[in-house]
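Pilot study result, target chain (163 residues):
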Amino acid sequence: MFYKQEIYDILHAHGILYEVTEHPAVFNMAQLSSVPLPYPEADAKNLFVRDDKRKNYYLLTVRGDQRVDLKAFRKTYGTRPLTFVPPDELSELLGLIPGAVSPFGLLNDEERKVAFYIDRSFLEGSGLVGVHPNDNTATVWLKTADLLSLLREHGNEVHTAAL
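Predicted structure:
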């Protein structure tokens, strides 16, 4: 399993430039709002959902202040009804706890079961995205394109979308 230091090691090994903001553990966006961040406009919120048959899993990454309409996602992408993945499955599939969900968790998805969808707006402007390094006591800031490249190399299905 890859956690904080292992994520940093992977980024180094791939020559990916990044910056880290250490902070107290945060478990939701409301708690994070009290943390001074260097790039608040690039901060991401991650939703881990599955279909009602437990066959298809999706990690959705959007801007921190953005709401996600799961019914609209279902209609657009032709999925079955979606629900949030419970903590035991989150731990089993990605090795994470609630509050530490991150695209980097896909590096722990050995069976490549989880499809990743990131809001395409992260590719605009600075192109930065801020996500946890599989630990909710830090935020890693890196270029969205570098994150997508790393996840594609790992073998997960990766999509940019209007979420």
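One observation from the pilot: The CA atoms of residues 13 and 113 lie 25 Å apart. A full batch analysis is planned for the follow-on phase.
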